[in-house]
Amino acid sequence: xxxxxxxxxxxxxxxxxxxxxxxxxxxxxxxxxxxxxxxxxxxxxxxxxxxxxxxxxxxxxxxxxxxxxxxxxxxxxxxxxxxxxxxxxxxxxxxxxxxxxxxxxxxxxxxxxxxxxxxxxxxxxxxxxxxxxxxxxxxxxxxxxxxxxxxxxxxxxxxxxxxxxxxxxxxxxxxxxxxxxxxxxxxxxxxxxxxxxxxxxxxxxxxxxxxxxxxxxxxxxxxxxxxxxxxxxxxxxxxxxxxxxxxxxxxxxxxxxxxxxxxxxxxxxxxxxxxxxxxxxxxxxxxxxxxxxxxxxxxxxxxxxxxxxxxxxxxxxxxxxxxxxxxxxxxxxxxxxxxxxxxxxxxxxxxxxxxxxxxxxxxxxxxxxxxxxxxxxxxxxxxxxxxxxxxxxxxxxxxxxxxxxxxxxxxxxxxxxxxxxxxxxxxxxxxxxxxxxxxxxxxxxxxxxxxxxxxxxxxxxxxxxxxxxxxxxxxxxxxxxxxxxxxxxxxxxxxxxxxxxxxxxxxxxxxxxxxxxxxxxxxxxxxxxxxxxxxxxxxxxxxxxxxxxxxxxxxxxxxxxxxxxxxxxxxxxxxxxxxxxxxxxxxxxxxxxx
Amino acid sequence: xxxxxxxxxxxxxxxxxxxxxxxxxxxxxxxxxxxxxxxxxxxxxxxxxxxxxxxxxxxxxxxxxxxxxxxxxxxxxxxxxxxxxxxxxxxxxxxxxxxxxxxxxxxxxxxxxxxxxxxxxxxxxxxxxxxxxx
Lengths: 594, 134
What we know:
The structure holds two protein chains of two kinds. By secondary structure, chain A is of the alpha/beta class. Chain A has five domains: 8-94, Glutaredoxin (3-Layer(aba) Sandwich); 129-338, Rossmann fold, CATH 3.40.50; 349-432, Ubiquitin-like (UB roll), CATH 3.10.20.600; 437-524, NADH-ubiquinone oxidoreductase 51kDa subunit, iron-sulphur binding domain (de novo design (two linked rop proteins)); 539-593, Alpha-Beta Plaits (2-Layer Sandwich). Chain A has 23 helices and 18 strands. Chain A has a five-stranded mixed beta sheet with strand order 7-8-6-5-9. In chain A, a hairpin with a 3-residue loop joins strand 3 and strand 4. Chain A is globular, with a radius of gyration of 29 Å. The mean pLDDT of chain A is 91. Chain B is 47% helix and 13% strand. Chain B is built from five helices and four strands; from the N terminus they run H-H-H-E-H-E-E-E-H. In chain B, strands 2-1-3-4 form a four-stranded mixed beta sheet, with helices on one face. In chain B, helix 2 (20-30) packs across helix 3 (34-43) and helix 4 packs across helix 5 (123-133). The termini of chain B are far apart. The chains are: A alpha/beta, B alpha+beta. The interface between A and B is large, with 55 and 40 residues.
């Protein structure tokens, strides 16, 4: 059916809040004013849900100009019709001029950013399927079901070059192909939403902001491989994402996108939500499946790969949230379009979370192949407080720490691996000159030894031993043979572990040994922490400039500071635990660490 | 299929922890060896098989919080609560736990008291936050 041609479109908000403030009278007045000016056939009035300025409603947006008018009254709309629609003059006094919509996590994209996966996050209402549909939602599913065979869908994904965004970078189309080749009636599609990497929250944001894009990806995957049941495995630490997914599944069922005979094409598919209970290793695909089956979430050897024998022994594909969110765009805009973004072997965009000592932390989406330096300095605005860049850790706790000389390296699967790091799911932690790399390595080993599920001995005991050695070094009790011991242990853990956790666990140690060996040596030989972080190797001292305000003495948890009012204070080294609270509360910069 | 993890989550939420009797009862209902259910109950960090305090304080121990000054907050928490992670205070008011990343690293360091998340925590704010709960 051809769309009628209108000169202007008006979107009038009629959500509950605006209705309560008189949106219905506004609409009546608007229609009356249009009739009075003979504009009824030229201006299309559409009722829509929340436009985003609820506090200032009732509101409307006039297109093609995209002008938002707020605080509407019947008199105001009459004036707007007379001025704006009849004479083309914007009525400034009702115009909304503030920033579009505040989103604390997702600021306006920086130069070099490219928003595709997160294009709708913070723009549409995730709890309203109609807003998703208005953004071509489920059009890709319709296209697959009506125009493409499952084989053609797989070919399209293969051609796009999309690689799994969970970290390993396996071609998504290949995975689907393996599962499609299995001749059995029962197959499963799992969306891995167990985003556990510290500092990584891009999947949470996509689930909270655009859940239907993920559901649509799962549906298309199900159609492609011949599955009728999907599971979303989401971690319990994400209560808002869990709520959003529940609403999205319910609405998709109501609209007939999930269930039996979808879009009348004889395709059945439903999705169930499973929630984790706090186990990092469950992000590993075989552990995740064990958890869905109600077992301890421990990985198992592969092969058989999940695509052959997965959940309850049936062929299963497990894709990351972001991988699935990419699918609709590939179908809608074509594999060539997708493949035009990125570099030779790495196509499309990737979301990252930036944490640590950069000016702008938070979520970003950039084309693959952008350099580390571009992300740190152009996208994230450089290092905080004018300090010097020291290292960037990519890929979460199993990633490596990359030093300054490699800032020109493109971010892609191959180049990061060449530096001893990984892409991972996309957590980036930037560290400034005040960071102790031995302490950082110790810190990550503390994490991995804690999260090691315990099944593989090298991982369970090896990570523990590495941690003990690092703790000793940080405490100033390191021995010269420790460095060699760390290198040997790391090798054994990588070789003797089943899953990515164990295979990646020593990466922070291996890379810091490789790029920051001098710091290890300073700790071991000179008993010094060059970054002044390791408590046992530093002392706090009060300078003579201390005005004797007594704030430090009051705040010291170990009662190690003595001194009278307006006299220089003194830290008793026997009592001091080097917590640094005194230095952080001193307003006169009179406390130094050495 | 019975979702054991979901059922354990429900018990853990309702009672604050998963008592042995509940493990055995669930095993009977599902016709599974109790060891299987107990295995799951002890595997996941969010499950607890010991009674916990009235309020559970969780501190994020992960990298983004660590580099944003999390360690000073952690020390302040230990001092304020007078217990170590994994312990419950003698008066039964506080349980102190560590948590993995809560995914709100934009406001690191982060701590939780029961179901509420607190961001941009400083050592000075710790006492204030704890006082607001009791």
